[in-house]
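To the structural biology subgroup,

Please find below the input and predicted structure for Acyltransferase family protein, which we are adding to the shared reference set this quarter. The sequence is reproduced verbatim from the submission form. If anyone notices a discrepancy with their own records, reply to this email rather than editing the shared folder directly, so we keep one authoritative version.
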Amino acid sequence: MTNSLRPHGYQRTPLPQEAAPTPPTQRAEEPGQQASTPPAPSAAAGQQPKQRDAFFDNAKYLAIVLVAMAHSWEPLTDSSRTAEALYMVVYTFHMPAFIVISGYFSRSFDMRPDRLKRLITGVAVPYVIFEVAYTLFKRWADDDPTYDFSLLDPWYLTWFLIALFVWRLSTPLWKLVRWPIPLSLAVATLAAVSPDIGDDLDMQRVLQFLPFFVLGLCMKPEHFQMVRRRSVRIASVPIFACALVFAYWAAPRMTSVWFYHRDSVQELGAPPWTGPVMTLALFGCSVVLVSCFFAWVPRRHMWFTVLGAGTLYGYLLHGFLAKGSRFWGWFDHEWLHKPLGEITVTVIAASVVTVLCTPPVQRIFRFAMEPKMAWAFRKDPAEQARSRTTTAA
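Predicted structure (tokenized):
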């Protein structure tokens, strides 16, 4: 079942800054934010920059809802085989979808100073802030005042930020090599059979999820058009149905910890030869289900499209409620483990994360998610030249 092997982890688990396509963006994408497209030279002359792509905002919002729903199902999986099957299926593709989107929008990333600044302010600083905030929350909510601070051991949802930071910095390397996806799969396989990697910076997850980021880097707009064809949409229905049936069969026979990509096969009690097998099998299953998910994402502007810009907020903020519900024993109530209770929990989780993605919440917490921090950086010569030109004009 969904037992966690390491208490700091999924009892430290985990999307979604983006955590989505048109052209690649400069802004760091966590499970939620889609940065605006870098303006063309003509934009500086007064033309409007390119608009956000509704498809990707829709995809990010729907994915973050699935993240929150899956977290609400986790306490129910020991008593409900159906909840366990749904949990396994959703975990197969919800974070891979976020990571593919993040990789796609990282295609233009290089070591240019402005992009490094955005990486620091949009990923590294929120990581530090929320790592500290989650630790303080655990000390208070779980009545554990001696719980240690550790920036080297990401707690619960913050693993994604440190992973995105590492992936982003490695982007120039993946753009340089000839076969990036096979190479990234080889790295993930080696990580899966290397228990000595340890817990620092959650490197098992960083390396085992790496192929999805590299896949996003290699994707082009036409690839997203392919998965949105009507034939793919029709085929995705029986594929998802088969995935649910298989998950229902597998639920009592395997642990969901495989889908967290947090442990080596030795730590899962499996022989080393299962490392390559499970790495490739899970990657293949995830890619198929991510494609099916993208096939059903609406292309047009929807009522929730605007929320796609705030999914990082929903991702990080809902963690306090997700963990607090465990600390405070909310799931001890018997009726929550009945079908009606499970539906209620699902609706509440989807509603809460939706609220947390709204513009008012973004405005309140922007200081932590997207700090400007101009005081912390030197102006590069190009910026200074532009500033002098503007002043002279």
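Summary notes: The first helix runs from residue 41 to 44. Confidence is low (pLDDT under 50) at residues 1-47.

Regards,
Lab coordination
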